[in-house]
Structures are given as C-alpha cells and as structure tokens.
Specification:
eight-stranded mixed sheet; 19 helices; 25 strands; alpha/beta; Rossmann fold
Length: 551
C-alpha cells in the first residue's frame, strides 16, 4: 500500500503529526518514503528478514516510520508501550524475551535507553541517525506472502501475562477492508487520532487505515489528549468528513475538562463517525456527551459502538453508519441466571451491531454447544480477520484459536473469553468469563457493582475501581479496591468504606468482605486501560496482605 501511494500520488498528504517533537508537522507520501527508506537501510544492516524488531518510539513520526521500515524490509514489528517504571521495564523485558527480538528502533535523542536496559543480544538502531533514502522502485523487498506475519500485537488482556498475537498480512488487509467498507470511508475522509499506536485500535485505525484508504490522518500523542482533550476536539473541528473516537475514557474526559463555553466555540458538524470501543461502553456517558456538544453541531447518530479484539486483528462488529448508539435494557436477575430478558428498569447494554451467524457464534463454554438467542454464552469468532495464533505458544494457540462446536464438527473458531448474547439479531457483550463472580449461585458482573460504587462519594475516582472475588479462608469473598482522588482521614475512610458496603448490599444484594483505598493509578490496568481484576484476584487470594491493609 505504501509503495502504491508513493508511486501514484507522492505529493498527497499522508499524516499530520501534532503535539510531538514539533508543534505540528505534515508529510506527504513521498516525504514519508524518504524517511522510511533511510531507516530501512539501518534495519537491513543489523537484522534479517523475519527478525522481530521492537519499536521503542514515541507516538508520531518516529513510530510511523519505524513501523513502515519493518514492513518494507520484511521484518516483524513489535510495538511496545514506552516504559516509565520498573514494572513497565519488566514487562518490556518479558516481551523482548517472548518475541525473540534482536533489535530495537529507538530515537535516542528522545528515549536515551541503553543495551543494558533492553537485555543482552538486542541491537539498538538509532532512528535519529537514518541517512537519505533511496528510490522506491529499487528499494523494496519482494512483496510479502499473504500468510507472512505483518506484526506481533502484544496484549496482556485483563487476565494474563503478555501474549504476542501473530497478525498476518491477509488478516490485516481483510480487517482494513472490512472497516473501510462498513463505515463507507472514501478519499475525502480524514482521521483524527490520539490513541496509542502500540495498541491495536491506535495502530490500525489511526496509522494503517489511512494508508489503506489513501486519506489523511492527524495523529497526536495520548499525553496531549489526556492533558487537554480540547486539543483533540479542535483538530476534529478543523477537519472535514471526520472519523475519530476511542474508549469511554475519551468521551468521559471531554465531559470533565471541556466547558459549555469551550463547546460553543467548536464546529463538530463534520464528525461523521464517532467510534466507541476497547472497553465496556456506558450509554449514559455517550448521551451526556451528545447533550454537551449539541451546541457544537455534534450529531448523536454519529456514534458507532464497536466490538473487537487483537486476536481478530481489531474489528469484529459495529453499528451501522448513521444509526447512533442504540441500547436495550435487560432484567438484572435474569442476566445473573444467564438469560437476557428485556426490562425497562434493567441493566442497559449497547448494541454492537449485527451478529453475523457465519462469523459469530454464542457457545456454552462448558458444553461447547451453541446457545439459543437470548442465552448468555462465550462469543466465538471465525473468518479471515482471525489471527494465526499466539507467537510460540502452541498449547494456548490450540485452545484459543482452534475451538470447535461440539455437535456439528464444523469449522474452527476463536474463543474470545467474552460473554455475550444475541437479541433481535444483534450482539451484546455482558462481561468476561474469568472476571465473572459467582455469589450464592448468581452470576455477578463486576462492572455493575463498580458503576454503583463510584457514585457513592466524589472522592472515589471513576475508572479506578476493581471488584473481584479472592479466596480468603478457603472461600471466595467479594473484594473492592478503589482509587481515591484525595487523601481521607482514617475516620472518614472508615465511614466511606461502610457506605460502599451498604450501597452494594442494598442495590446488588452482595456482601462486600473488604474495601481497600489506594492512590491514583494504583489499580492495575492493561495498556488499553482495562482493569486487571484477575491479577488482583491472584495477588490477594490466600494472602493476608489484603486483610492487613483493608478498612
């Protein structure tokens, strides 16, 4: 795709990098190739085709050029989160070991790491030292085969250690084509993204989809967005036919940080696709966002809730263009029993688009039999976007990527680990299998309790709550770990813990065994912002640590 763009439209705008090493820098396809080809020379000097190369680059031009240099030379890119703590350096070391990476592309003027920090055998390629490029007609490797690996997408998920999803070129091309056709993206489309490129949504929708479709993309650092989400909205306001979005976090942060006066200065009428994904979707946040930015010309029908995961490259299903965020309410008691019965006072769940029967199946995870519509089961997937498996993990790959429905002997499916159901032909996700809490025979979804808890007091940080069960005294007990916005005196903390127990008991009929308050950022999450409840469960089960520090 890159070579086609360079040869056909070398002066067409490719990317605008905003808020990085310079205030704003735009590159056309020809300029991008000059940088990519220069870096490709360095990559070829110290690696061989098929080698894994870690991309230790900040979001923006450095990352984009490093990724395309790997593709242009037949190397397998391994995108990673930039480490800022001892724990993150430990995770990076684990990814390097697991992938067998032999080199890391690093702009040393920005990230002054050493070989000692990355481990023995890793060659550092300083992207700052890339020289002039070469003519594209003479410089590309032979085109890759469809079954060659394009990149490894490392994901820790919400439950386990990092695993490298092997995304093949044919997986990537199918998923990009699916996104482009489903959302009617054309050359007059523009994408504005703050999403981190080491994550599947930021990489594919922010960086690769524009290359596939031949339309421009404005990319900014996640930190730029987190510091001031108005920067993102202003970039959308100054673009046309815009596709932009992110998880609930993005829309919730805009509600917190953008005033009605600021909203009145924006023009969001060209925001055609406002996608939502990567974490459980809260329809109430989307309604409030639409109300705040109605004055800006934002249209609620622009919302496009999506479901996807790295094991299926990215996109699985989503709402139709112009349909907006549609949802239904389901009786909580029935959901706990494993069935979906509509109830006007029940739990609100968003529709995630049509559940195509040829590619999506709802399966009982124990019997491996298909579930009837309206029955909760595990979401299984099949199709050309499903990746090849986990890098060098044959047992896990066989279990997750090669499942079969018990009674039909048909094709293989990917087991997502997500629980969901089909209602009126549409997909609804209700939770994760490993996070489901079984309390006195009831299936309790931790997200429901977490949403209730954060309404208890303004000192409780939204998105900073984890509810899970831990084995205490040979019995699974319900635990709460909650981040505080501000420090509390012991007496106040004790009273607040009591309030949390009381509201959870009253609303959910669940007894909370312990409540622990922690500081900002201390609830562990994945790089995409998902709470790692299973990690907390494993840490505290059979331990007295939780009891000693609890209130």
């Amino acid at each position: 795709m890159l070579s086609a763009r360079v040869l056909e439209t070398p002066r067409r705008l490719a990317y605008t990098f905003a808020g990085h090493r310079a205030d704003s820098e735009s590159v056309d396809y020809g300029q991008l190739w000059d940088r990519v080809s220069g870096l490709s020379r360095l990559v070829r000097e110290v690696t061989a085709p098929g080698d894994r190369v870690v991309l230790l680059c900040p979001p923006g031009k450095d990352f984009a050029c490093a990724f395309f240099a790997c593709l242009a030379t037949g190397r397998i890119a391994v995108a990673v989160h930039l480490p800022t703590s001892a724990q993150q350096f430990s995770t990076l070391a684990e990814i390097i070991r697991d992938s067998g990476a032999v080199a890391a592309i690093v702009p040393l003027s920005v990230i002054p790491v050493t070989s000692e920090q990355l481990g023995a055998g890793i060659t550092i390629i300083d992207s700052d030292s890339a020289g002039p490029g070469f003519d594209i007609a003479a410089g590309l490797q032979a085109p890759p085969a469809p079954d060659d690996i394009a990149f490894l997408q490392y994901t820790s998920g919400s439950t386990g250690a990092p695993k490298g999803v092997a995304v093949l070129h044919r997986n990537l091309m199918d998923n990009l084509g699916l996104l482009a056709s489903r959302y009617q993206l054309a050359q007059d489309t523009s994408i504005v993204s703050w999403l981190p490129p080491f994550h599947d949504m930021g990489l594919i929708q922010g960086l690769l989809l524009p290359m596939y479709g031949g339309f421009p993309s404005t990319l900014m650092s996640p930190m730029t967005f987190l510091r001031d989400p108005l920067t993102w909205l202003r970039a959308i306001s100054s673009s046309s036919n815009v596709t932009a979005g992110g998880p609930n976090l993005a829309y919730g942060l805009c509600l917190k940080r953008v005033s009605p006066a600021d909203a009145a200065q924006l023009d969001l009428s060209a925001w055609r696709i406002a996608f939502v994904g990567a974490e459980p979707i809260d329809p109430n946040i989307l309604r409030r966002f639409a109300e705040l930015f109605e004055v800006s010309g934002f249209r609620p029908e622009s919302f496009a809730p999506m479901y996807g995961l790295a094991e299926s490259t990215l996109f699985v299903s989503g709402g139709a263009v112009g349909a907006g965020a549609r949802s239904r309410r389901f009786a909580v008691a029935e959901l706990e029993r494993g069935t979906a019965v509509e109830d006007a006072e029940g739990r609100e769940l968003p529709s995630l688009g049509a559940a195509e029967p040829d590619s999506i199946a709802i399966v009982d995870p124990d019997t491996r039999l298909r579930c009837a519509d309206g029955t909760i089961g595990e979401i299984w997937l099949r199709g050309p976007s499903v990746a090849a498996g986990y890098w060098h993990k044959p047992v896990e790959t066989e279990r997750v990527f090669h499942a079969r429905i018990a009674d039909d002997g048909g094709p293989e499916f990917l087991r997502t680990g997500d629980l969901g159901f089909v209602c009126a032909g549409e997909l609804y996700v209700s939770g994760r299998i490993k996070e489901l809490m079984i309390v006195h025979g009831r299936n309790i979804f931790p997200q429901d309790i977490e949403r209730t808890i954060v309404t208890t007091h303004p000192a409780l940080r939204p998105g900073g709550c984890a509810v899970f069960t831990a084995e205490i005294g040979d019995e699974d007990r319900v635990m709460v770990v909650q981040e505080l916005a501000d420090l509390l005196e012991p007496d106040n903390a004790e009273a607040l813990a009591g309030s949390i127990r009381e509201i959870v008991s009253r609303v959910h009929a669940v007894s909370v065994h312990r409540v622990v308050f922690v500081g900002k950022g201390e609830v562990p999450k994945t790089t995409s912002g998902k709470v790692q409840r299973q990690r907390l469960r494993e840490h505290y089960s059979g331990s007295t640590t939780f009891q000693e520090s609890a209130l």
